[in-house]
Automatic annotation (TrEMBL):
GO BP term, pick one: DNA biosynthetic process
InterPro entries named among the record's database cross-references: DNA/RNA_pol_sf (IPR043502), Rev_trsase/Diguanyl_cyclase (IPR043128)
Protein's name according to its UniProt entry: Reverse transcriptase
Length: 86
């Protein structure tokens, strides 16, 4: 595992490139994976869904991909059910 000092000029680019790399390795069996590729701002996942079940599925898929990269999704806003799970 490589480390980059926090605050280095290249840190935001390297973080984004690392996340995009791991997302590109995820199977694209459905369109949700494609949505994930455009739903990250730095290490924050920004997404929406029509139902709580959809939110949970999207979260589980995004978190599974991030765990493979050695990262976890930790923050949650707006959905108390999901915030309790995280």
């Amino acid at each position: 595992m490589k480390r980059v000092p926090f605050g280095a000029t290249s840190s935001p680019f390297l973080l984004s490139a690392t996340i995009q790399y791991h997302l590109s390795k995820a199977p694209e069996e459905d369109k949700k994976t494609a949505v994930l590729k455009t739903s990250f701002y730095f290490d924050d996942f920004l997404g929406a869904a029509h139902s709580k079940d959809s939110v949970l599925r999207i979260y589980e898929q995004a978190n599974r991909i991030m765990l493979k990269a050695g990262m976890t999704l930790k923050k949650c806003r707006q959905i108390p059910l999901l915030c309790k799970i995280i």
